[in-house]
Inverse folding.
C-alpha cells in the first residue's frame, strides 16, 4: 500500500469511529460538556500508555518552538470547537447546527489556496457544495434555530476548519506527539466550560456511564484522533475536508440501526450525494496525480 493509500485508510477508519460517536454518547447518558472535557484528558493519557507499552519513546525534544505553539493552538481550537458546537446544540436544533457546522470543509477549500498555497480546484469546490446539499437532505430543517445558536455553530465551523488547516503545517512532528498535545489541550480548554455549565454537578457517574466514558476517551478520542491526525501527513487539507462528509452518513446509518431513528428516502438520497461526491473527488485526484 502506498503512503497515500495508508493515509486514506487511516482517515476512513477514524471517520468510521467518529460516525458512531453519537450512538455511544447517547448510551453514555452523561452531559455533553462532561464528555467533551474528560474524553480529551483520557485520550491523551491513552496515547501515552500505548506508546509506552509498545516501547515507543515520546519526546518533545527537537520540536521547533513555532511548531509547538501551532500544535497547542490547534488543541485549543479543537476544544473551543467542542464547546461552541455543544452550545449550538443547546440553543438551536441539532439539524441546523450540524448543517452550519459542516460549512467548515467549504471554508477550507475556499481559503487553503491562499493560506496553505494548495492548488485551487473548482471540481473539489463543486464536490463540497454537492456534499453540503446531501448533508442538508440528511439533517433537514425544523425552523427552531436561534441567532445565538447559529452564531455558535458558525464559530464551531471556523475552529474546525482551523484544526484541519493547522494540522497540515507541522507534518514533520511525530503524529503521536502532536495528537497527545492537541487532545490534552482540548480537554483542559473544555474543563472550565464543563464546570461553569454545571455538567459535573448534574452528572451521574454510574458504572455503565463510566464504562462508556472510558470507551469514548480511549477509542473515540485517543485512538481515533491518532488515526485522524496521522492521515494528514499524506493528504491535502481539501481532501480531508471533502472526505469528512462520510462521518455524518455513518452517523445517520448507525442511529437508524442502533437507536431505531428513522432513515427516510431523503436521508438515503443525501447519503448518496455525500459518498458519491467524495468518490468522484478521490478518483479525479488520483488521476491528476498519476
Amino acid at each position: 500500500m502506498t503512503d497515500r493509500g495508508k493515509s486514506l485508510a487511516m482517515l476512513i477508519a477514524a471517520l468510521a469511529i467518529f460516525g458512531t460517536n453519537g450512538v455511544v454518547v447517547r448510551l453514555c447518558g452523561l452531559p455533553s460538556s462532561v464528555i467533551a472535557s474528560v474524553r480529551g484528558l483520557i485520550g491523551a493519557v491513552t496515547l501515552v500508555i500505548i506508546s509506552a507499552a509498545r516501547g515507543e519513546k515520546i519526546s518533545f525534544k527537537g520540536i521547533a518552538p513555532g511548531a509547538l505553539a501551532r500544535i497547542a493552538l490547534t488543541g485549543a481550537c479543537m476544544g473551543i470547537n467542542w464547546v461552541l458546537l455543544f452550545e449550538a446544540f443547546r440553543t438551536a436544533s441539532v439539524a441546523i447546527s450540524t448543517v452550519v457546522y459542516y460549512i467548515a470543509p467549504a471554508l477550507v477549500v475556499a481559503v487553503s489556496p491562499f493560506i496553505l498555497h494548495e492548488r485551487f480546484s473548482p471540481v473539489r469546490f463543486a464536490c463540497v457544495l454537492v456534499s453540503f446539499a446531501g448533508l442538508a437532505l440528511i439533517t433537514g430543517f425544523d425552523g427552531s434555530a436561534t441567532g445565538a445558536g447559529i452564531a455558535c455553530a458558525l464559530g464551531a465551523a471556523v475552529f474546525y476548519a482551523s484544526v484541519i488547516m493547522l494540522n497540515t503545517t507541522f507534518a514533520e512532528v511525530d503524529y503521536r506527539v502532536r495528537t497527545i498535545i492537541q487532545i490534552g489541550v482540548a480537554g483542559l480548554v473544555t474543563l472550565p466550560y464543563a464546570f461553569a455549565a454545571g455538567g459535573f454537578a448534574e452528572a451521574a457517574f454510574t458504572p455503565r456511564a463510566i464504562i462508556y466514558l472510558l470507551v469514548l476517551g480511549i477509542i473515540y478520542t485517543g485512538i481515533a484522533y491518532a488515526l485522524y491526525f496521522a492521515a494528514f501527513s499524506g493528504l491535502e487539507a481539501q481532501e480531508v475536508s471533502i472526505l469528512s462528509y462520510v462521518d455524518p452518513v455513518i452517523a445517520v446509518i448507525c442511529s437508524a440501526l442502533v437507536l431505531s431513528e428513522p432513515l427516510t428516502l431523503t436521508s438515503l438520497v443525501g447519503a448518496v450525494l455525500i459518498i458519491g461526491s467524495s468518490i468522484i473527488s478521490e478518483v479525479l485526484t488520483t488521476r491528476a496525480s498519476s
